[in-house]
Design goal:
This protein has about 400 residues and is of the alpha/beta class. It has 2 domains: about 220 residues, Glycogen Phosphorylase B (Rossmann fold, 3-Layer(aba) Sandwich), CATH 3.40.50; about 150 residues, Glycogen Phosphorylase B (Rossmann fold, 3-Layer(aba) Sandwich), CATH 3.40.50. Helices cover about 50% and strands about 15% of the residues. It has 16 helices and 13 strands. The strands form 2 sheets. The chain has a 7-stranded parallel beta sheet with strand order 3-2-1-4-5-6-7, with helices on both faces. Strands 10-9-8-11-12-13 form a 6-stranded parallel beta sheet, with helices on both faces. The longest helix has 28 residues. The relative contact order is 0.11. The C terminus is likely disordered.
Amino acid sequence: MKLMILLSRVPYPLEKGDKLRAYHLMARLAERHRIILCCLSDGPTDPAHIEHLRGFCAHIEVIRIPRWRILLKLATAVASRLPFQVAYFHHRSAQRVIDKLIQEQQPDAVLCQLVRTTEYLRTHPTLPKTLDYMDTLSKGMERRTRNAPFYLRPLFQAETLRLIRYENLMFDLFDGTVIISEQDRDLLYHPLRDRVQVIPNGVDTAHFSPMPMEKRYDLVFTGNMNYPPNIDSVLFMARKVLPLVHAQRPDTNLLISGVDPSPEVRELARQDPRIVVGGWVKDIRHSYAMARIFIAPMQIGTGLQNKLLEAMAMRIPCITSSLANNAVQAVPGESILIGQTPQDYAAHILRLLADPAERDRLAEAGSRFVQEHFDWERSAQQLDDLLLLSTQRAGSVGAIASKV
């Protein structure tokens, strides 16, 4: 089957969650199908990254959208029906390129990742198409609204409503739909959301495996540090949790490791020398391996936290929130620790730092849990089965329509 995959970003290197999911699923689907990759980009693309993707893609089309076009589109989107984060990625010039690509390549099916890309398929109603919602973006925006400055709340509330309507509309227009977790599926507002298939991420356990390194840090947090839920998480940790820990263990330090640290995150390191903001690293595994404990007190956001799966696979004991663990479904107290309040997190941290044997027990249980429940091969097979079923279903509907 010729499968066209439409993404809002070039899926390599793997420094963001949507790229990670797209890359690993696409690489495995390429073993069974001819992959036509089409990605949008608002900046320059490293030729070496494209060359890497050619290892399993038969055709690659990167559509560069200049920043001035994006700003102009966002300004005009105020009066449109589109959510702003759909308008950000949808442009007539890109539509023409995609239409031409579909005409030339004649794909048997299209897989869209995130509703940010789905508008491009509105003009191709008969083409079999599957949507990977990945996260419930509307719920993520709704949660961000609660903590937003008062002057931004009306904008965030309007975007939430637009996303709800748009997610529901795309459910009706696509032949198949998938999402990353049961939690995210249940947060969709469509009355038939139970039909959305849950396909979780996997973990490359051959890559993310224990590494013997000196433990230079007590705590570590990793992720895209310009992403609001991650920023919110480390601010919560630095301002509310660490003061409680420092009251009993003054030397406890924290490594914040990840691409594009925001000014707020960088400021944390200037305010407290026990907080290290590492920024982008070539091999994120080193950040995990140099820490005694991984902590992710996620307060907002949706989706599956890949950082948790990676840390657990590397046998790092993990502490997180019930919000993040709802997608992972690890057993609290057995393979992961759950905090609700700053006091909860501080108590978990202090207990683990004082008890190496408990750290080892939790780390071993976490590693075993990930290996049993998160596998890219299994997820790719589920997606492949759905793609084939959706293609058959769309073909049947088309055949019926042609006879009417």
